[in-house]
Write a structure and sequence with these properties.
single chain; 69 residues; mainly beta; two-stranded antiparallel sheet; 4 strands; 0% helix; extended
Length: 69
């Protein structure tokens, strides 16, 4: 038990090689028995955050707007 605030953390697979044209690394969710993995941890265990960008396809979804995503 802890007095620290708790955080939910999504688990991801280790980075693969960077994409040649972008020099950005790729990752994907970690799954176990077809379910995304996550953990509840004390906030004091978090060392740093990581911002991830989605891999978009060739065409943008024209239905997306700042009001609905």
């Amino acid at each position: 038990q802890t007095d620290d605030p708790l955080v939910f953390v999504h688990l991801f697979k280790p980075f693969r090689e960077p994409v040649k044209d972008l020099s950005l690394y790729q990752t994907s969710y970690s799954y176990q028995q077809h379910a995304k993995q996550g953990r509840i941890l004390p906030l004091s265990h978090v060392v740093q955050s990581c911002h991830l960008l989605p891999k978009f396809g060739i065409a943008a979804d024209t239905q997306w707007s700042s009001a609905n995503i």
